[in-house]
Amino acid sequence: MISFIKGKVFEITPTYIVIDNNDIGYLVYISLNTYSKIKPEAPVFLYTEQIIRDDAHLLYGFFDQLERELFKLLISVSGIGANTALVILSAMTAQDVQRVIANGDASALQAVKGIGAKTAQRAIIELKDKIIKTYDIESNGTSSSSSSVKGEAISALEALGYPRKRSEKIIDGLIRENQEISLENTIKEALKRF
């Protein structure tokens, strides 16, 4: 699995980028939000998600980890494929996607090309709780400043083999104790409490 890629911009369009990494050109599909943040003259670093199908090996790139995590959540919903997920992340920022799903705003999702009423409802039903819990979204759709630390810390602990529910409880406690705790300290303290 390719987790990230960095290199020079060889070619860029609003839907994909070709990154020159050690004289190999990687074709990476991107959202408009990622496209708008890339400076063609500067080295580029993208978080990636690789999808392997019978007929293709595809690489999707994201400027930040939040966008990649939301992409993975979106493609987990029946009826939303990788291309549709990119369209959603092109039509809205990652924070907007969080807010729309947390607030159950099906009409905002339906405004995106390729999303019908049933798919929008299914996405909200399947993802609302995950987004509220993982990113610490409040009922009005705003997130606390510690939400990215919480999400990344939970992912890190899961990668180390710790159960998600227990990780969430421990990390919630640490963030309640210290709202300004860093990601590194959150993980270190959480490991001590297992």
Structure keywords:
194 residues, alpha+beta, OB fold (Dihydrolipoamide Acetyltransferase, E2P), DNA polymerase, domain 1, Helicase, Ruva Protein, domain 3, 3 domains, five-stranded mixed barrel, 5 strands
Task: Explain the layout of strands and helices.
Elements: E1 4-12, E2 16-21, E3 24-30, H1 32-37, E4 44-52, E5 57-62, H2 65-75, H3 82-91, H4 94-102, H5 106-110, H6 117-135, H7 147-159, H8 164-177, H9 183-193
Parallel strand pairs: 3-5
Antiparallel strand pairs: 1-2, 1-4, 2-3, 4-5
Helix pairs in contact: 2-3, 7-8, 7-9, 8-9
Give your account of this protein's structure.
- The structure is a single chain.
- It is globular and about 45 Å long.
- With 194 residues, it is α+β, with helices and mostly antiparallel strands.
- Mean pLDDT is 88; it is low at 139-143.
- It has a 5-stranded mixed beta barrel with strand order 1-2-3-5-4.
- The chain has 9 helices and 5 strands, in the order βββαββαααααααα.
Describe the structure concisely.
This protein has 194 residues and is of the alpha+beta class. Helices cover 51% and strands 19% of the residues. The chain folds into three domains: 4-62, Nucleic acid-binding proteins (OB fold (Dihydrolipoamide Acetyltransferase, E2P)); 66-135, DNA polymerase, domain 1 (Orthogonal Bundle), CATH 1.10.150; 147-193, Helicase, Ruva Protein, domain 3 (Orthogonal Bundle), CATH 1.10.8.
> What does the largest sheet look like?
5 strands, mixed, barrel
**Number of helical stretches of at least 4 residues:** 9
Tally of domains: 3
C-alpha geometry: globular
**Can you give the helix content as a percent range?**
40-55%
Cα Rg: 18 Å
